[in-house]
Amino acid sequence: MAKHKTHYEDCDVLVVGGGMAGTGATFEARHWGRDMKIICVEKANIDRSGAVAQGLYAINCYMGMQWGENQPEDHVRYARNDLMGMVREDLGYDMARHVDSTVHMFDEWGLPMMKNEETGRYLREGKWQIMIHGESYKPIVAEAAKKSADKIYNRIMITHLLMDETQENRVGGAVGFNMRTGDFHVFRAKAVIVAAGGASHIFKPRAVGEGMGRTWYAPWSNGSAYALPIAAGAKMTQMENRIVLCRFKDGYGPVGAYFLHLKTYTQNANGENYEKKWYDQTKELVGEYIDHHPTPTCLRNHAFIQETMAGGGPIHMVTTEAFQDPHLETVGWENFLGMTVGQAVVWASQNIDPKYTNPELTTSEPYVMGSHATCSGAWVSGPEDLSPPEYFWGYNRMLTIDGLFGAGDTVGGSAHKFSSGSFTEGRLAAKAAVKYIEDKKAEGLKVSDKQCEDFKEKVFKPLETYTVAQNEITGGTVSPSYISPIQGLQRLQRIMDEYVGGIATNYMTNANMLKRGLELLAWLEEDLENVGAEDYHQLMRAWELKHRALTSQCVTEHTMFREETRWPGYYYRGDHMKLDDDNWHCLTVSRRDPQTGKFSMEKVPVYHIVDENEKKKAS
Ligand SMILES: Cc1cc2nc3c(=O)[nH]c(=O)nc-3n(C[C@H](O)[C@H](O)[C@H](O)COP(=O)(O)OP(=O)(O)OC[C@H]3O[C@@H](n4cnc5c(N)ncnc54)[C@H](O)[C@@H]3O)c2cc1C
Q: Which ligand 1 atom is nearest residue 49's CA?
């Protein structure tokens, strides 16, 4: 251990992850905490990290309140509808009422926004989306964070949260290691904001072998946002609500601009509108939810999956009509330039020119996220003025551990935040974290050297394991005494894929499969004690894997608990195929006991605050 130098940093606010939410949190922490010490720690480099690394072509969450385009209530209704009723409306409303101010700052900071030439307003792609030339989106928000923080640490992966030793259930900071130097870093902090993104690669991806890593969701999003709080005993919510995306096949290029701006549409191999065909069957499963407008994302997936299973595939996006218009053709291609250049390369390699050939679509493997059309994540306190008692415990966006805050994909229950809403949620969390410190809630924190040293030993153990076990390698990477991160990852992905509702089973699972999945995950957990890493990069892979495995356990426990199929098209409980509002119109909340590793589950009421308030006003 001596060869890994330990660095100590004491600070007020520690932001873990410098993506959209983390940069928002770092920026806002400085606004409220002028004299505070603010540190942001990022696994990659904040200039190009997180899901927005390559850029975006649209900001997907903008109300346009100044022009009376949408109000926060409208957004709550939209998110509630899309998630089949299951959202935290207090969190959604709180984000929506502040998101426009965030977007206006992006505009001031130089993000090129497209304008509607007639009205002078931001150019709408859809009801909620506005169009940007967003290749430089991430460096622009990173600059704001860099100017706000006392220090940004790049290339440090946070592996564990530190806990206060004087007061139970209070956070004391975090530890991690530098992937380039191998140094160990201890950050003792009065408040910690986890903003470490969601989880890809826990389910086996469609692209394996030579295509591995070609997924819709960023391959470096490894579930730290969930594993860090789960390991510390924080409560989580809606972890069963994984997301499946309908995207262009093999490149996962975005379809939003195509549907909304280019007005393209889908059809089956025979040129038919297949969605209509599945209306009655879907109504049988979910009742009147199928009549909602817009059709919830999962239900559109459902029709796609059913049609493919019934032999109607491949499903195509009809681009040949829109692409005859040179302006729309340009928009179609530029859409990829700003965020998914790879899609254009895939089409070139497959001889597809969308002007003459309708490209194929696919449904992705499932991912776990809290900011997209899905809302898995931590169970957090809402804002004081909106949240019912069950949803409020003092500080906005604080988890069930004192001093531990979350934002973006970390936070559960608040879907459809996207990039702008995640940045906004980071700002909200930071404001509350500063107040928490100012209210002297973090006084007398104690984090002993022993706690840090114990973590240090754990963190570097995979290097030790490899050093010893490599002597027993029988061929290639095969050794009786260790498994490599890639071997462990592929084993995890198969368990999740085959037992928890991945592509292998067309997203189908049931209690028996989940039970077996949990058993296999427990064996994997045991074997991960023997994961070996030959260098610091592999050490990162080892810790990414451990975080993914813990996240997967939580996802599986939640999927087991909810005995209904709430989101057909995201996954199916074959033993409970119907949506069951009588018993399951509620949020699911879990807690893993850090001592025993056992999960406990509970139902928590879902409050439809927006329309309740309106009903009250009317009466
Ligand atoms: C393919 C795709 C397309 C999208 N398209 C759009 C769009 O068109 N418009 C839009 O508005 N939104 C879009 N979004 C949504 C948007 O990107 C997310 O909502 C947003 O990035 C979430 O912010 P976040 O900070 O929670 O996560 P991220 O932005 O992903 O940031 C997480 C950060 O944490 C870091 N990190 C992870 N683990 C650790 C660790 N252990 N230690 C230290 N650092 C760590 C990561 O490196 C990363 O920088 C899209 C998302 C995806 C995946």
A: 49
- Distance in angstroms (rounded) separating the CA atoms of residues 315 and 550: 35
305 contacts: CB under 8 Å, gap ≥ 6: 363, 506, 507, 569
- Tokens coding 395: 């500080």
CB-CB contact of 196 with 17 (8 Å): yes
Alpha-carbon span 506 to 104, nearest angstrom: 42
Quote the ligand 1 centre to 20 CA distance (angstroms). Answer: 6
Q: What digits encode the pLDDT tens for the residues 121-172? A: 999 989 999 999 999 999 999 999 999 999 999 999 999 999 999 999 999 9
Which amino acid type is present at position 286? V
The model's pTM: 0.97
Tokens coding 292:
């909602």
Specify the pairing of strand 404-406 against strand 184-194: parallel
The whole-angstrom separation of Cα 183 and Cα 48 is 23
Distance CA 564, CA 576 (A): 5
Average model confidence (pLDDT) across the chain:
96
- Ligand 1 lining (C-beta closer than 6 Å): 16-22, 41-44, 49-52, 56, 58-60, 157-158, 195-197, 216-218, 220-221, 224, 371-372, 408-409, 417-420, 422
The pLDDT tens digits for 368-415 are: 999 999 999 999 999 999 999 999 999 999 999 999 999 999 999 999
Structure tokens at 451: 């706690």
Q: Cβ(229)–Cβ(406) under 8 Å?
A: yes
What is the Cα–Cα distance from 148 to 570, expressed in whole angstroms? 39
Contact 582, 599 (CB under 8 A): no
